[in-house]
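User: We ran a pulldown and think these components assemble together. Before we commit to crystallization trials, I'd like a predicted model of the whole complex to look at. Sequences follow.
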Amino acid sequence: MKRDLMDILACPMCKGDLELTVEEENDEIITGTLYCAKCDERYPIEDGIPNLLPPDLRE
Amino acid sequence: MIGYGNKKIWVLPGVYKPAEDSFLMVEAVLKELRPSDRVLEIGAGSGIVSAFIKDRASVIAIDISPCAVKCAKLNGIDVIRADLFDGIKGRFDLIVFNPPYLPSGEKIGDWLDFAWDGGEDGQATINRFLRQVKDCLTENGRFLLLVSSLSGVDAIMERMTSLGFIVEELLSERYFFERLVVLRGRMKE
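Assistant: Here's a predicted model for the assembly, 248 residues in total across the polymer chains.
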């Protein structure tokens, strides 16, 4: 995902802001984590795709 | 892979293969789109509609299916895996949704069910969308919603009106067993 996607991503549970941690990046972010401090929940970024499903819907 | 217009679109296993409804939505979007629009596509599937938008405006796509988001990404679309608007904030000038609209029947038991199963009356996901879309539109924002005679066009138009939207039929086409309509909704001035 492109970095500027952060402007529109929100925690699916509280709609709050997310903290980005990047593990792999070339021209875009390939692998990383989006963290919601309020819900203490982490959302993965894999293969360049952020997964914003709540934990119970995530595979 | 399928071809439509000047595009070749990859369709991975488990992803809705673009059909008449997808093509009607492409035509409707091309009619409606302004270059300055910031666009959001919900339920993007293979990403075919976003692929056409991308040539003319900025677009972000969302889908709930892991197969669909991989496929849309492969087709060059910026994509998020989420349930409708749940993973996003902010407002868009144009929101596009070709929803699962068929009344529930026998489920296949995989992610493709999410592409067509609209609940008992075919309107469950559409109703969830309509309740949330207002909060994601800019002041003069519009949304395009594809509906079928199989799930009841009039009922959905009435619901949109009761939620305060100005509703118009942007495009429609009759097929063997259904009529497909792209509705345009926008807020009253």
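The mean pLDDT of chain B is 92. That may be worth checking against your pulldown data before setting up trials.

User: Thanks, that helps.
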